[in-house]
Specification:
Blueprint (H helix, E strand, L loop, with lengths): L1 H132 L12 H12 L1 H108 L1
Helix pairs in contact: 1-2, 1-3
Amino acid sequence: MLEDRARLARILVATGVVGLIASLTVGILGWMLAGRLTTAASELVDPMGRIAIDVANALDAGVVLVQQTTEAITGIEDAARSTGRALESATDAMDQASELLVGNIADSLQATVDTFPGLIDTASVIDTTMRALSFFGVDYDPDEPLDEALIDLQLSLTPIPGQIRGQAEVLGTLQTDIGRIGGDAGSLAAVLLETRISMSAVESIVDHAAADAAAAASAVESIRVEFDMIDTTILTMSLAAAIALAAAAAGPLLVGLHLIRVAGSGA
């Protein structure tokens, strides 16, 4: 009878010890598994998250850069168009000025100069007549004869039409140059318009890429949260299982130890 109790006591103690060992093993395995998950998250998920965030930030900066570039191109395009219109207006004004110089002023002066020979002859006759009349009491004694004064005026006016036409030629050359520059400004505006359209397309692409990168970063963060939740769940379940096993093992262990003490007292 005593041997049966001793055998039972040993079985109960062994069962309790095995339960405690199992409880400790479950706790250690749970802690190790949670540590492995934490390490995996740190080595795999965290770098992926940082990369996704860096890419998203870089793309956001790219969107801002593209927007600023587009705004700058728009400003230059507007300036080029305004310059082209202003130069076109200047070309029209210079064309009118050239026509005025050649068609009105120069031609009018030339017509005036062409009339001088007849005027000079008439002035010579008038001067001769007036001098002849001075013998009859007419007061006529100019410092310079009228015909000579007209000759001096003719000599002064004769080169002016040619000079005006020369200035008109200069204006024509300048008008051509300004017209070419205006055309170049218009071409530049057209090129800038195409560039701006292309930049808008690039902005749309980069913007979508930035949104995708942000979504990827959010997804990686969600995975990290899932890892943390799984890690916490494993630790909690391991601890609960270890406590349950320890509680289950405590009963047989205590009973077995009590039986051993009782058997020792009876002996």
